Amino acid sequence: MFKASKICMAFIKYLPLLLALPAKAQLFGQASKQQQYYLQQIAAYNMLHAELKQGYGVIKNGLGGIRDINTAELNAHTAYYTSLKTPSAAIKNNGQVKDILNYQSYINSLFSHITDQSDYVQNLKAKVLTDCSHDLSDLQNLLSNQLQMSDDERLKQLNTIHASMLDKYEFTQNFSNQLKTLALQRQRETNDAQTLNGLYENH
Prior knowledge:
Elements: H1 2-13, H2 15-25, H3 31-84, H4 89-92, H5 95-112, H6 119-143, H7 151-202
Helix pairs in contact: 1-3, 2-3, 5-6, 5-7, 6-7
């Protein structure tokens, strides 16, 4: 395309020389034919140059349009993936977030009132609190900008964490109640034994 355009411009550049040729061509009786021929060639090259220029403009504008479209798509994709890293207010303010934190507080309180220092109870306490720590870590990541997730995916993950923490809270509550019941039974047995011993000694 550019080569043909250069040829056309060169032809126009040397037009005066071409028009001067008929003066010499008259010596051979070919002035009018030569002049007509060159004028036709000039007209043809002018048309070719115009078409090439128009075609180049179309291509240039077309490439510019494609570039603009690609830039717009890239910006849209960038904005979308950036939004995935930012939890929405609906997720941050979800009631389950507060529930999870409350369950953790309740679990700590329940274990603090358990007086049984046996290895079994202490090992179970350590296991439950470790699992709670994992849930809280998952919750922190979910509410931060570290994960690339949609709101639906975050909500699903939040439901999972909530269910896990609720399960540990209910387990700890039942376990605490069982220990209290067992402690009361032992206390009654101790009291009964002391009563029997007192009656025996009095006789």
